[in-house]
Amino acid sequence: MTVGFVAGFASSVVVIRLDRIVRERFEGQRFRIPSRVYSTPSIIYPGLDVELADLRGSLVRLGYREAGSDGSVQQGEYSWQKHRVRVHLRAFEHPTRSEPARDVVFRIRDGFIDEILELPAGRTLGAVLIEPEQLGAYYGPDRSQRELVSLDDLPPHLVDAIVSVEDQRFEAHPGIDVRRIGGALLANLRAGGIRQGGSTLTQQLVKNFFLTPERTLKRKANEAVMALLVELRYSKREILETYLNEIYLGQRGSTEIHGVGEAALRFFGKRVHNLSIAESALLAALIQSPNGISPYRNPEGARARRDLVLELMTNQGRIEPAQRDAAIAEPLSLAAITPDPGDARYFLDLLRVQLSDHYDAKVLSSQGLRVYSTLESRTQRLAAVALREGIEQLESQFPALVSEDPLRALQGCLIAIRPQTGEIVALVGGRDYQVSQFDRCTQARRPAGSTFKPFVYIAGLEPRVGGPAITLASFLDDSPLEVSTPSGPWQPRNFDREFHGRVGVREALERSFNVATARLAQEIGIGRVADVAHRMGIESKLPLVPSLALGVADVSPLEMARAYATLAGGGVRPQVHSIEDLVDPAGETLERRELRHKRVLDAGTAYLATSMLQGVAHRGTAAGVRSTGIKGPIAAKTGTSDEERDLWFVGYTPELVAVVWIGFDEPRSIGIASSRGALPIWRRFIGELTGGQIQGQFPRPSSIVVEDVDPVTGARALWGCPDRRRELFLEGTVPEEVCPSGAAKGSEEDGFQRTQERFFEWLRKHL
Q1: Which residues of 500-533 are buried (b: 16+ CB within 10 A; e: fewer)?
Q2: Which tens digits make up the pLDDT trace of 55-69?
Q3: pTM, to two decimals
Q4: Structural domain contains residue 93
């Protein structure tokens, strides 16, 4: 009796302990769901180059499938023909740009979208949005992904398929099925080995939720007891829903696929409620051996198992024979395998850092948040390829740059932002994330070289008491200069080792003359130069030394992108950001980015600086950017630090600012200029992004006036001046001197000329 009491007491303790485990899991957080990160939605509109937009690639990456030959196109499918593309777009939720499902036809002419029609009515659409692409997720230690679903989301035939093959008496048993255990035992005895399992669906859930996969009597006993406890405490509906969200259904790369919701997206590119009978049967078939009969690796085995499930469903009266036959005839139509885009990992790291101000790593890896980012998936892919292949091309051209040690290899980064909004649309922090996770766009600070020089000229052009230090008609002195410093005299030299005497302001920047720039900085004050740089977006500490004018300061590519975005935005500095919206699993918006801007330069000064940098891209050190035929407005600046250790190229269009940096993590000479190292990468990226035709223009503010000047003296050119060129000025800064020098200021001829010039300027603007 004592032994029985002790055994009963011990059993009670075990049951109480197991019951506590069950309740804690079921009544707490059942699943750890990684937060997913999405790109921006893609906009498709008439006039878009189909190949340039990578429309087909986007559909494949999103899991869209090519439709069958019967002419029907179901949701999540597309039909691609030479002059006609039909896509049944899926509905998607987005905090600001949700879209319903649409059946659309893109009419193609000469490779461009000519018209968009919505079926069945044939209504013409001005544009359509395609859902965001998943860039990645913030996983916990198990790297599992699931899309939570409720039983109400599921088609009945999916539940029937799973129950028919895994536990047809699910509704009748109390957690363990003695009849099934007996049947499995007899089957295994006849086969002489383990051929059939006797576990119920509830036992499978318990094993996955609480226990290890080891096969021991103790584990099986705990499994049985816990299954009974689960059935005692929770409804069949709740158990089934939990099982359907937990079940393991395969692997996609290093990520585990759990639950029927995630499996529907991964295997068929559709939401679970849109599954056909055949697709539901295939998911049910995979439960037995998700990797062994994967339809990608073993399509024949997967199909045979699927057909077996369909037969069981028919025998159990869950579907009609005609439905079975139609489902068996249905081919395996699978979404393409699209691994996580590894090129976005640097961006995901930056995003994690920004999110960590409000959400810790545990929340990001378990709460199932949806992060809608600013990244444009196509722009990001082009940036990654341009940087990686550009560096490889440099190494092939200059073998001395090759290193056997991947950690000491030539590196680089490329970052692109929208100047009007500050959105980061592409970020590639290195040539290979697997080798090095150090983000050179945001974490590295390197000497800016000549990309810093525009700040000097902006400081000189800015209005101030008594007028600006220079105008675009001014001249600078590029003769030998010596500046006393605490460490001794500083004597800047030009890249070509020559001095050029009296040079125009435009020429000085276009040809990147060091001495002329340094002399200008001395005249206006290094402090004023540093103030301009800080206002425009440089946050790093700037040493107030004469060589600051030539880019001795260490800055990050992100800072440089923000500063040049201020110019592209007409003197308004944007707040750079990577997050658009943050949404919880219930669809509630937790965070929404607010555009924050600050005017730090007057619009006229910013426009003058842009005009100068357009000259750099047209005639100066960045002129090679046009060598492949890119057309449209570009403003740019090259930069090479001392001993050619850092190669920079910063360029912007009316819609995009992009910065390329090339160098070694442990600084050493590269031996080439930025025009041969960084510029080709920028040129390739922008060329492929735009198709070689940059749209838009830099708007000229009303404070800018246009006058003819004498190229030799910089004086305003009147009738009789032997030569002239058009120049831009802030209002009130037009030169008082005139050419020819003897002409009377305000003379009748002068007034007539100015009236005539204004008339022709009006014609140019309005005709």
Answers
A1: beebbbbbbbbbbbbbbbbbbbeebebebbbbbb
A2: 999 999 898 998 887
A3: 0.87
A4: yes
